[in-house]
């Protein structure tokens, strides 16, 4: 896999947007294209590190960093899932992909779902993993009450070290070693997330 950054605004005067991808070193015409979209808080390299070796034997893989994660960036103030989906789809078109399947994990599942809506002609198959796409607002609120949270924003964008520990405890099966992290390390994590 090779790193590649696609400038989406090279031909316009709008806000700068670039999407970073990991792309196949040698694309094989006998293999279908597969796009892997990471979840919230991760980047593509971290999220799919263990899957790439196996999947690349069967697919031409394209693994983007979503905007504001990893090396992808936009000056556009839009933070919507639709904007994410449109940017990934536009980046894939600029890379010459006409047809592909897409796998989305967690937040990436929302993006994959929207990509299938935005670019119907290009998306062949969609796989969504661990993503609450069909939850109603009432179901989301009930789940937040059960885990003791105010809202999803407070859970995913923690404001203090205790909030980070809570998020990790909910996200990982064996989270004890992360609870040992000192407050200043967790405060650094919060500072970086707040910046983006």
Mind explaining what this structure looks like?
It holds the Pfam family Abhydrolase_1. InterPro entries: AB_hydrolase_1 (IPR000073), AB_hydrolase_fold (IPR029058), Meta-cleavage_hydrolase (IPR052370). The protein is an alpha/beta fold. The chain has helices spanning 44-55, 81-94, 107-118, 137-147, 152-156, 161-171, 176-179, 183-195; strands at 2-7, 17-23, 33-37, 60-64, 73-74, 100-105, 123-129. The chain has eight helices and seven strands. The chain starts with a strand and ends with a helix. The mean pLDDT is 84. It is 42% helix and 19% strand.
Overall form: globular
The average pLDDT value, as a whole number, equals 84
Number of helices: 8
Low-confidence residue ranges: none
SSE string, helix = H, strand = E?
Answer: EEEHEEHEHEHHHHH
- Biggest beta sheet attributes: 7 strands, mixed
How far the N terminus sits from the C terminus, by CA atoms, comes to 26 Å
Radius of gyration: 18 Å
Strand content: 15-25%
Question: What structural category do the secondary elements indicate?
Answer: alpha/beta
Instruction: Estimate the helix proportion, in percent.
Output: 40-55%
* Number of extended strands: 7
């Amino acid at each position: 896999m090779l790193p590649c950054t696609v400038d989406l605004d090279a031909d316009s005067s709008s806000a700068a947007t670039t999407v970073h991808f990991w792309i196949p070193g040698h694309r094989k015409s006998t293999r279908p294209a597969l796009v892997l979209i990471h979840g919230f808080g991760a980047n593509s390299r971290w999220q799919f590190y263990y899957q790439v070796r196996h999947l690349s034997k069967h697919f031409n893989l394209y693994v983007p960093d979503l905007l504001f994660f990893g090396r992808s960036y936009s000056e556009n103030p839009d933070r919507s899932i639709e904007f994410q989906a449109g940017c990934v789809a536009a980046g894939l078109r600029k890379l010459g992909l006409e047809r592909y399947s897409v796998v989305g994990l967690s937040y990436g599942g929302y993006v994959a779902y929207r990509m299938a809506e935005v670019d119907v002609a290009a998306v062949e198959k969609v796989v969504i993993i661990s993503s609450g796409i069909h939850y109603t607002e009432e179901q989301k609120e009930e789940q937040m009450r059960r885990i003791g949270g105010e809202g999803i924003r407070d859970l995913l964008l923690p404001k203090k070290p205790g909030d980070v520990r809570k998020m990790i405890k909910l996200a990982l099966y064996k989270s004890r070693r992360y609870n040992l992290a000192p407050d200043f390390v967790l405060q650094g994590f919060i500072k970086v997330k707040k910046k983006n």
